[in-house]
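Lecture 7 notes: from sequence to structure.
We start with the chain below.
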Amino acid sequence: MNIRTSTAAALTAATLAAAAGAPALAQQSEFIAIGNVAENDSSFGMLSFRHGLGMSLYDGIVLRFDAARSAYEAGASDGTLDNFRLLVGYAMPLDATSRLTFFGGLSYRERSYSPSAPFLDEVDEAGVFLSVEYNIDQTNGNEGFALAEYDSVEDTFYTSAFYLFGLNNDIRVGPTFNYLDEGDYSRHAAGVRAAFDIGDSSEISVTGAWAEGDTGAATIDSSYVEVQFRLTF
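Predicted structure tokens for the same chain:
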């Protein structure tokens, strides 16, 4: 079960990375670093880079690369899960405050254990990744986000959303929700996300969420705390 829950934490972090970015800080490139620790003793780290080929990261063709690793316990074994994505996207403004972004490309996942055991399934597989994102950034400082994505590796579907209320020019706070469906495993989470601007081109976000996984039998506490740093340039 730790394997499944760790995958869920990784997808959550990857989704929050994709969700970052606001037109108020719009540049042509974006770098994101994430650290995530879950109640089930799993940990996660991720680096993500996006680059707009047009005049803006938020209008036109976008290149994206993600690299992530999670670590967890699986019985008497230590597991690692590495994820890499190479994607091409298109950002399409809907009006002055909202946009849709579509991504598609290659996904690679490798899961290994030390020591290995017959009941632990290792993965070394490439597949197709597709996603659609919706962003809204209002003039009063509020911002919202919604995501749906599919990864053919392990047949994974994930959806997430948050809405942040602007408390002042530099701080935004609000609820966040997400849901994962991966074969015979599902997981749902709800929590609070807070974003703090650091200057004109960087941001720190902190998320605390209650999460519960379900295999049709026992449930597992997958609650997590996450810190994210974002820089646009």
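Points to note: The CA atoms of residues 98 and 136 lie 4 Å apart. The first strand starts at residue 29 and ends at 38.
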